[in-house]
Each structure stands twice: as structure tokens, then as C-alpha cells.
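comment on this one:
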Amino acid sequence: MRLALPSLALLALLVGFPARADDLANAQRLWLAGQKAQAVEQVETALGRMPDDLRLRFALGVMRMELGERDKARAIFTRLTQDFPDLADPYNNLAVLHAAAGELDEAKAALEQALRLQPDHAQAQENLGDVLVRLALRAYQRSQKAAVAPSDALASKIDRTLALTRDMRSR
């Protein structure tokens, strides 16, 4: 699964919000130069002046995700879904975090919300497909455990679905 905006450079696409361009641009430059701690500090400093700024908050959430700080990222994206309930991207990124934690039902619900808000959101569509494949695998595996007798057809479905999930991870 992938983020709605996998590159911090793409955050400039979010228009109409008050982030000073130089704050975000400086943070992006630092990030891309490998100075990730300084980039986070730049965004946090800017958020101190503009705590409600969507672009800065979203950038910080993406940074936290990419740094592996999932709990902090989850808190940021959850709050963004509350403060900006009509935006699909925070739901998509929250779903990525849920899926990474194995919370497939929560990931599915977040992606469905993203798609209700923006039906043509390509990344949310792809991520929903990934989650549905993983949910199918889970259902097949549960069925196999509950079965009284082995089923070649079910074993074949599990093998094909496992191969698909491995292929999804490799891209």
C-alpha cells in the first residue's frame, strides 16, 4: 500500500491553504537532502506559527510515516480526518497505517470513506484492492482452519492469493 502523496515534493499540489511556501519548500529541500530531523523541525516550527495549516500538518504526517513513527503519524492523520472530513488523502494515509498494523477492517473502512469523498482517487482505489486481497487471504485461511476435510480447491485459492500478495509487496 502506498501513501496518497508519496513524495513530499507533491505536497505543493494541495492549494488554497495558508502555509508559507518557503516553510514547506525549505522542509522539502532538507528532507530530500537527507536531513530528515531538520526537515521535521522546520515543519514543527512553522506549525507553531500556523497550527491549523493543512499542508504543514499533512507534510508532518507523511514525514512521520516515512520515518516509521507510525503512532505519531496515525495521530496526525486521525486529527486531519476530524478537522478536514471532506478530504480523501488523510483517510488514504490513515488506511496505509492501519494496513501496516494488520488492522485490515479499519484500513478498508478508511479507504471506503476516502472513495466516498473522491471516487476517482486512484491511490485509494489501488490500496483498497490490496486490502481486499489481504482480507480474501484471511477468509480463505480461516475457512481452511475450520474445514473438516482438506480442500484442494481452497488450498489452490490460498496459494494463488499468497502469490498475489507477494507480488504486491515486491512493487
